Amino acid sequence: MSYLIVANWKMNKTNQESLKLITEINNAIQQTSNINVVICPPYTSIVPAAEVLENSSIMLGSQNMSHEAPGAHTGEISVDMISPYCEYVILGHSERRIIYGETNDIVNMKILKALGSKLTPIICIGENIDQRNEGKLDSILKEMLESSLTGVKSFDNLVIAYEPLWAIGTGISASPEQANEACSKIKILLMEHFNKTEKDITTPILYGGSVTKENIKDFLNQDCIDGALIGSASLSSEQFLSIIQTIDTL
Ligand code: PGA
Q: Which CATH code is given to the segment(s) 61-227?
């Protein structure tokens, strides 16, 4: 089985820093490994990073994009601006939802726009700590997934990332069992939405939230976790490559 590992650099790295990091990662990762690596640098580094990765197995993703057509949208990035360089786009990240007010409807419009341009959306869903404590995990996952997938006809070009808000950037990850439980609920929701059996659903389901080289193995050893979305630990080549090396031994 091959794992999908997505690095989300968020609002970090100047162009010079991005190119240094991407070159170090590219030089160290072997084409033959059992891991598909996607790097999501800031917008400003996407084009130069694509040049570095020209003959590489490493793929690029964007951290976000607009659902609007090109035009009067100051400060936004259209799908056409990223799709020549990226294969993936992270959509609905909790930082976009909470800090920038992206609603389920906006996230859904972005997902449909990405799919229309042959970009694979990495759709982030997850509960906050109050929702978890109030026993609302199932209903939150259902609401977020169903609204994301409105109008989506196929599960082929999708990735779902389970990212509990309380684990993002906090250093306190979910336990592997908690993450697996949520990912298995997501799998069932996908089966119901697309009216398919478990073996038909090939959509990778990732876990994200304080993933490190110490805990990556425990997450990937779970039945329903197909990879990881990694923030902080993807910002240094040493940490990120040690995660990749750990996965290589699985
Ligand atoms: P983290 O971020 O690994 O720093 O917790 C994960 C994410 O936001 O996707």
A: 3.20.20.70
